[in-house]
Every structure is written in structure tokens, then in C-alpha cells.
Amino acid sequence: xxxxxxxxxxxxxxxxxxxxxxxxxxxxxxxxxxxxxxxxxxxxxxxxxxxxxxxxxxxxxxxxxxxxxxxxxxxxxxxxxxxx
Length: 84
What we know:
The protein is mainly alpha-helical.
């Protein structure tokens, strides 16, 4: 994105892009512990963003490791027949 793109990003955004998967997991866990102590309802926006980034990275890794993988579930349901 370049230097000027980073000027307008928060420290959290920069960390989210540059952190390793393990650092993301640790950051999520720290936020989760605080969230539990506060007794809050929904996940915090930061928790949702970390979770989304971890899922995105996991999906990319799986696609790299299994380039010819077929989807496990069809879009209309896994128990429906494929002969439509």
C-alpha cells in the first residue's frame, strides 16, 4: 500500500496486517479474557477483525496446500443429492 497508505491506518490496523498467526491468536486471547471479565455480550470489533483475519489466512494456506481441492459442501446443502 505504500508509505502514505500507512499514514492513515491505526496502530491496530498495522499490527493486524503484520502480525504472525501466533501473534494474532495471542492478541485475540488477551482480548477474549478481558471481554469475559467485563461480561460483555457481543465480541468486540477488534476481536471480530482478528477472527476474520485468522480465517482468511487459514483459507489461503489451505488453498495453497490443496490447489485442486473440491468443496466439501454444496451450496444448497450437504445432504441433498448432486444429480440436479
